[in-house]
Amino acid sequence: MRARILILGSGMGGTIVANGLARKLSDELRTGDATITVLGTTPKHLYQPGLLYVPFGRAREPELSRDERSILDRRINFMVDPAKRIDTENNVVHGESGKSYKYDFLVVATGSHLAPEMVPGLAESSYQFYELEAARKLRDAIDGFDGGKIVINVNVPHKCPVAPLEITLMLDEHLKQRGLTDKFEITYTYPIGRLHGLEPVSHWAVPEFERRGIQTQVFFNTKEVDGAAKKIHSEEGDTLDYDLLITIPPHRGAQVIEDSGLGTAGWIPTNPKTLLMEGSRNVFVIGDTTNIPISKAGSTAHFQADTVVENLTLMVQEGRWLREYDGKVFCFIETGTSTGTYIWFNYNTPPKPTPPTQMVHWAKLAYNRMYWLSASGLL
């Protein structure tokens, strides 16, 4: 069958799907029986997990981004034209440029974005590391910090589920290495009654925090930030003073999802096994864009992308289905400046963090370097 494959989003998920399909549908691309088009929002591809290291001066910024065109297979059509409206009834996507794109199969990988404006005062009075310029500002703030109260404020939903734990543990060790051991205190807040959404990860984090003297405040749903008074208030009525406020802002999905009537808050109702949009047979959804209640992580997008590639290939070539996504997620966890651990889990197997080691830390650094091979479909 002839297949026009349209991919919305040129982050990790969209890029891996595009390159994987180009490799497996090589004959179809050569004969014109298949085309692959990617619509991105920017010509650059950013390796977002690498931003975690910027605040500590442990990342070379040129290594964190590349031109998306250089990563994609040359047979893939790539355009910077963000989707403005998705019409799944007529199999067409309208771009902001005014151009329309017909498709036979659609892969929605539009990701998520920060929404600090959902909490009054949060954007103006806090630091975060989910964007390059913001990570630079946090680096400057940490460099200039000589003591006081630090609040690490976690809001949900957010992508990279272990990032709040990582920034907390890395900052604690970083400041102690600077000789500030007795001059600061860290308080970590979380909106539910434990330190992490995944209960086994929370159980692992509790003794880690206690051993290092990190304070915690659970059931802390952020209401507002008073930057002038340097106070952060919760919906539950608690108030914390701070000298340095680092936040994990709430995230939302792409606006085009809501504007197209496909989901709420930018998340598309998605079958957790087939990764098809509920009620659809030709619209796949991967990564942060799904409403599947699992981690919004890079590895989630990667494993889902592999599943979509296999199934789309067989649907184009043989008209049949191959396999289902089992919920697999794998995350490295930095536990300081020189040690790390990891978790893996799926729909049936809960995570079980292992004791931190230097070897795992080096494994994560190695993967950071190899990411570009993975995104290019070479790994």
Key features of this structure:
379 residues; alpha/beta; FAD/NAD(P)-binding domain; 10 helices
Give a quick summary of the entry.
The chain is of the alpha/beta class.
Please give the order of strands in the largest beta sheet: 5-2-1-9-19
Tally of individual domains: 2
- How far apart the termini lie comes to 29 Å
Structural classification? alpha/beta
Total helices: the number is 10
- In CATH, the topology of the largest domain is named FAD/NAD(P)-binding domain
- Estimate the global geometry from the Cα principal axes: globular
**What is the number of strand segments?**
21
Largest sheet: 5 strands, parallel
CATH architecture label of the largest domain: 3-Layer(bba) Sandwich
- Enumerate the spans where pLDDT stays under 50 for 5 or more consecutive residues: none
Strand content: 15-25%
Percent range of helical residues = 25-40%
| CATH class type of the largest domain | Alpha Beta
- Based on CA atoms alone, the radius of gyration comes out at 21 Å
Q: Looking at this structure, what is the CATH superfamily of the largest domain?
A: FAD/NAD(P)-binding domain
Overall mean confidence score, pLDDT = 96
